[in-house]
Design brief:
Length: 143
């Protein structure tokens, strides 16, 4: 944080202290040089969490079929075993139990994939993410 602030053209030198509150952090920033009127710092009330979904198996025969993800009691439509990151993102954001997510997909051997889902929501009181439940509809080996 200190290096990022001091890299800004309007800030010379700062001292930064971070306190862990268990549910977030409290930042104390002291401007030690170039004192004067500076623009107000604004904290964005967002929280992020990353969860992974991965297919396994398919060695040596590649995987095929489809799967579904359930979050907060709501399930996505069937997703192809090799669904793109954009498809998984669209399916998750269509759920009434989620707001915004980012999805990245990693490709492995034998038709295996891993989707990294980053939950991006405004901070709410008692916000907690539940784990995905993933339902295999017809994930199979292609022979």
């Amino acid at each position: 944080m200190k290096a990022a602030l001091e890299a800004l053209p309007s800030i010379d030198q700062v001292n930064v202290r971070r306190e862990d509150l268990g549910t977030g952090h409290r930042w104390e920033i002291t401007f030690t040089k170039a004192l004067g009127n500076l623009p107000e710092l604004v904290a964005h009330m967002h929280r992020s969490e990353i969860q992974h979904v991965r297919t396994l198996g398919g060695d040596p025969t590649p995987l095929g079929g489809s799967f579904s993800l359930t979050y907060g009691g709501a399930a996505t439509q069937a997703l192809a075993h090799d669904a793109s990151a954009a498809s998984v993102k669209a399916a998750l954001e269509a759920l009434p139990t989620l707001d915004y997510v980012d999805v990245a997909r990693d490709v492995y051997n034998f038709g295996q994939y891993r989707w990294r889902v980053t939950f991006r929501s405004e901070v709410r009181v008692h916000l907690s993410y539940t784990r995905f439940v993933w339902c295999v509809w017809s994930l199979f080996l292609l022979v």
